[in-house]
Write a structure and sequence with these properties.
The chain is mostly beta strands. The chain has helices at about 1-15, 235-240, and strands spanning about 20-30, 35-45, 50-60, 70-80, 85-95, 105-115, 120-130, 140-150, 155-165, 170-185, 190-195, 200-215, 215-225, 245-260, 260-270, 275-285, 295-305, 310-320, 325-335, 345-355, 360-370, 380-390. The protein is built from two helices and 22 strands. The longest helix is centred in the N-terminal third of the chain and has 12 residues, at about 1-15.
Length: about 400
């Protein structure tokens, strides 16, 4: 339910206003899977031009024998900044991201200071946020880190970061990272990042990219390596099957074939353990209106390598903005494994959603259905109703 709820929240919340001095938002979600319920409370506001605050609270309830009603706070932070942009800080619960290092959700404080000669210094310290199923009675759990960077021109920088995490006083993770990015001109740029796991004695993540633009064509070359600890949460079948710890090398070509038509060719190879295979995709997106709220998309994807892990997939998507603030969204994927091994010859995935947005109310309903190696069939339904209050 978490995956579907997050996608639905992004769908209906994309246009939420945030310029009011005080904004309160409540979201109520219900799922047909367990059944289960989820209440999201979101608040944000500003005081003058230097202080702001935000809070995002998730409270979940599920009808299962022996289960209690649980709640969790994702973000609740007080932020302050210098009106001239020379310093900023926050305290509370937030997600800390220092350059190339792995992002962490912490209860603590962090800040950033701009120094003379184009130097930036960032630091954070706090307690890592544990899942509700993890024993939270242990003491001496903490994390601290920092980053120093040199700004280059208007859009470039070079930075070095360090982060250490302790679990019950014992070293759990320790990473050092470096990141760099530079725009040579309006058409050429390059970037790189690397994170080394000191505790595990290995490379956690590394990536190098360079791109050039000429008229309607943009070309990018890339090389990357990631460990399991640096993977992002998966959403659809394509990301579940394709986002694995691996090394990747390739190029991405983006062509603006028409004012509202984009064609993207992602041509690469992936190496996982001792297995090497192709990883290629062709994507198109046609915007049906100037804002892109109505669009059509198609993707063909081939992931090769060992026959028991290779697959071919096709994906279609469409969104339609209707009168009176209604909207529709549909996504369909079908994956065919090279060897099904008794797990099904085709793995389909589908998402259907409808939304309605007004000045104060948001409503949405979505249905997700799939058949995967894990489940022969699975259907989820979720309803979201949101109300926003603004106080001046």
């Amino acid at each position: 339910m978490t995956r579907l709820a997050a996608g639905l929240a992004l769908l209906v919340g994309a246009g939420t206003a945030s310029a009011d001095p005080l904004r309160l938002r409540g979201d109520a979600l219900a799922s047909a899977e367990s059944p289960a319920g989820l209440l999201v409370l979101d608040a944000a506001g500003t005081t003058g031009s230097a202080i702001s605050a935000e809070a995002l609270v998730w409270m979940a309830a599920q009808r299962s024998p022996g289960d209690d009603v649980t709640g969790d706070v994702l973000v609740i932070a007080l932020k302050a900044r210098d009106p001239k942009g020379r310093a900023s800080g926050q305290i509370g619960r937030f997600v800390s991201a220092l350059g190339a290092l792995r992002p962490l959700q912490i209860d603590g404080a962090g800040g950033r200071v701009r120094l003379p000669w184009h130097f930036d210094v960032e630091a954070m310290a706090g307690v890592p946020v544990l899942a509700t199923s993890v024993d939270a009675s242990r003491s001496w759990d903490w994390v601290a880190g920092g980053r120093i960077a040199q700004r280059i021109g208007d859009g470039g920088s070079i930075g070095i970061a360090y982060q250490q995490e302790r679990d019950d006083g014992r070293l759990a993770r320790e990473e050092v990272g470096a990141d760099a990015g530079i725009a040579f001109d309006a058409r050429h740029d390059a970037g790189a990042r690397v994170a080394y796991d000191i505790a595990g004695k290995g490379l956690a993540e590394a990536a190098v990219t360079a791109s050039a633009r000429r008229g309607p064509l943009r070309a990018e070359i890339f090389a990357s390596q990631r460990s399991a600890a640096h993977l992002l949460p998966a959403t659809s079948l394509f990301t579940v099957l394709g986002d694995t710890p691996a090394q990747r090398l390739g190029t991405v070509l983006t062509w603006r074939a028409a004012p509202r038509l984009d064609v993207v060719a992602d041509l690469g190879a992936r190496r996982a353990s001792d297995d090497v295979g192709e990883d290629v995709a062709l994507r198109t997106r046609l915007r049906l209106d100037p804002t892109g709220r109505s669009s059509l998309g198609c993707e063909l994807h081939r992931s090769g390598g060992a026959s028991d892990a290779a697959w071919t997939g096709v994906r279609g998507s469409g969104s339609l903005a209707l009168p009176h603030s209604f909207g529709l969204l549909a996504e369909v994927e079908v994956v065919r494994p090279d060897e099904d091994r008794g797990r099904g010859a085709l793995w389909p995935w589908m998402l259907l959603a409808a939304t309605r947005k007004t000045a104060a109310w948001d409503a949405a309903i979505a249905f997700e259905a799939s058949a995967t190696p894990e489940y022969r069939h699975r259907v989820d339904a979720i309803l979201q109703l949101s109300r926003t209050w603004s106080v001046r």
